[in-house]
Amino acid sequence: MDGHVVDNPAMSRYELALGDEVAAAYYRIEDNRIVLVHTEVPQAFAGQGIGSRLAKGVFEAIKSSGRRAIARCPFMATYASRHPEYLALLDG
Fold it and tell me: Where, if anywhere, are coiled coils annotated (predicted)?
């Protein structure tokens, strides 16, 4: 597994490579904020902490970019609420 979350702006998603598969966090840009709208982890990787690894990488990327985020995705909102260091990045 690659282990690094990368931004794929052409597909409006952050990606975590998992061999031949990809876990993804989809977003859109509104008022220079990243709106996280949906997270997907391949079924074969369910229950292995992949979603949390993806979320951590997404929030680290947002933090590094200096942008703010809105978590419309329930998974991302819950992850941020459990990690105060990322909760501070959220608007709304």
Answer: none
